[in-house]
Each structure stands twice: as structure tokens, then as C-alpha cells.
Write a structure and sequence with these properties.
The protein is built from seven helices and 17 strands. It has about 280 residues and is of the alpha/beta class.
């Protein structure tokens, strides 16, 4: 398991009975988490004093119950700064377990000894984008949500990367890749965080288990002749880390390693599993 255990501005204080208690900067939140199915006592005072709590609805979805929490606040991870807010579907605009991947991305780029062009697909609010840009890469950031790309640009600005060589693209990722292949553009590193399930702009259904192999195969067409790495994230619980390894090695050759991502829990000493990542290198 790869642990994101170098945080200062984030802490997973406790988790139990399908919820996690977290500190984001100076604020504490309670959010649902399907992995925390154990029933340990919620003795930490934060459970009764959190600044906001996401409550599920019996009709699906849910809503944030918030006291005096500001509409927007910042947290930092090293030289990276992120803008947070209470978003739909229990999110805050950041996945803290990805910090260990930001470190991997930065180390690979800084040690490459050459100019690196990075393509970040399904790029959300840009954690990996600004990690790569801060390490000196040229980055193309692609996401189908205009709002998420706008938030990513805010994160870049907050991280003093407003003038970094980042292309901001609002587009369907598969269609963008097809156009890049026709244009002959190549990238030395690919990062992708595809959803478990979704629909394309014309109603196309995306299901990770069915479509990931074909999508990675499509992405082969934009890899340079001397690729540095490919990083694939998965939050689909039915897809094992080894499956990601087999997909990348079957399509790309080289060597791949896949592990679960985890966050240490302060109160109990447990580690909360938070999806999986595959790191491929040529």
C-alpha cells in the first residue's frame, strides 16, 4: 500500500460506521465513506463538534450541514496550494490520498534530466497537474467539466503557477485523444483518473471495467518514443490493483506496479483504503 502520510494541513482523525472525521486545515468535516464499515466507538470529541457534516438522503444523494464554515478556504501540501469548498456528492475538491502520487510525479519529472510533456486526463481540480507543473513539466490538463477546470486554474494560481506552461482543456477525454493522435502530438507521461461510471456528451455510457482497456489502448497513440511513466487511478472497488498492472503491461510492455492507496487514521492507528493506483514505467 502507498500511504499519503506526509500531510500537515490534512488529517484523517477517525473513521467508523461508514463515516470519516477529517481535519482540513483548521476545519473538521464528517463525510460518508463506504470502506469504513467497522463499528468502533466514536469517542473523539470532533464527532460532536465538526464544522460541517454531509448527511445522506433516503432518496439518494445528500447535503452538507454546515455552521460557520467559509465558502472557500485553502490547504497546502509542500509547495502546492488547493482551494477547498463543500461540493456536491460529499466532495471538497481534493483527494488527499493522492499526495503520495504527487510525490511520485514530481520525483520522476525532476530526475528525468530532459523536458517532459505531461497529459493529465479526467484531471478534476488539478492536484496532479500542479504537482507536475511545479516540478518543471509542460502539462495539458483535460476534463469534461468546465467548473472543475476553473477550480484547477485557481489551484495553479494559488500555487504561484499561474504562468506555468499548462494547457487547460474542457473536453471529452476520448475525443480529445483521438484529435491529438490526428494532430500527431505526443506526451512523455500520462496521468488518468477515470470515473467508475459516467456518460459522454452524446449519452455514451462509460463503465470502467468495460472501457478502461480500450481507453488505455487508445492512449498508446499519444505516448512519445521515450515515455517516462503512465499513472492510472481507480476508485472502482471491484477492480483489483493487479488488474491495472495486467492492463498496462499487456498494452505497453515495460514494468508496472499497482497498490492500494491509504490514509493513516490518527485515533485508531488503522489505515483507510482509498482506491488503487498503477504506476507504469518503460
Amino acid at each position: 500500500m502507498w500511504l499519503s502520510d506526509n500531510w500537515t494541513d490534512y488529517e484523517l482523525i477517525d473513521c467508523s460506521a461508514g463515516e470519516r472525521l477529517e481535519r482540513w486545515g483548521q476545519y473538521t468535516l464528517i463525510r460518508p465513506d463506504p470502506q469504513a464499515i467497522w463499528q468502533t466507538a466514536k469517542t473523539h470529541p470532533g464527532w460532536a463538534m465538526a464544522d460541517a457534516r454531509y448527511e445522506r438522503s433516503s432518496k439518494g444523494g445528500g447535503r452538507w450541514i454546515s455552521g460557520s464554515l467559509p465558502g472557500r478556504w485553502e490547504v497546502s501540501y509542500g509547495e502546492l496550494t488547493f482551494n477547498l469548498s463543500l461540493m456536491n456528492f460529499k466532495h471538497t475538491g481534493l483527494f488527499p490520498e493522492q499526495a503520495v502520487n504527487w510525490e511520485f510525479i514530481a520525483e520522476k519529472i525532476r530526475s528525468a534530466g530532459r523536458e517532459i510533456n505531461v497529459l493529465n486526463l479526467f484531471a478534476y481540480t488539478g492536484g496532479a497537474t500542479i504537482a507536475a507543473a511545479a516540478a518543471g513539466a509542460n502539462v495539458c490538463h483535460v476534463d469534461a467539466s468546465r467548473g472543475m477546470v476553473a477550480r484547477a486554474r485557481e489551484n495553479a494560481k494559488s500555487s504561484d503557477l499561474e504562468d506555468a506552461p499548462i494547457r487547460w482543456i474542457v473536453d471529452d477525454c476520448a475525443k480529445f485523444i483521438e484529435r491529438e493522435i490526428r494532430r500527431g502530438r505526443k506526451y512523455d507521461a500520462l496521468i488518468m483518473d477515470p470515473p467508475s461510471y459516467g456518460r459522454g456528451p452524446s449519452g455514451e455510457v462509460w463503465k470502467l471495467e468495460d472501457d478502461l482497456y480500450g481507453f488505455v489502448n487508445l492512449c498508446k497513440g499519444v505516448l512519445s518514443d521515450n515515455p517516462l511513466f503512465v499513472l492510472i487511478n481507480s476508485y472502482t472497488t471491484g477492480l483489483s490493483p493487479m488488474t491495472l498492472t495486467y492492463i498496462t503491461q499487456a498494452l505497453l510492455g515495460g514494468q508496472a506496479e499497482s497498490r492500494e492507496l491509504g490514509l493513516p487514521v490518527t485515533q485508531s492507528g488503522l489505515i483507510l483504503p482509498c482506491g488503487a493506483s498503477c504506476r507504469w514505467e518503460s
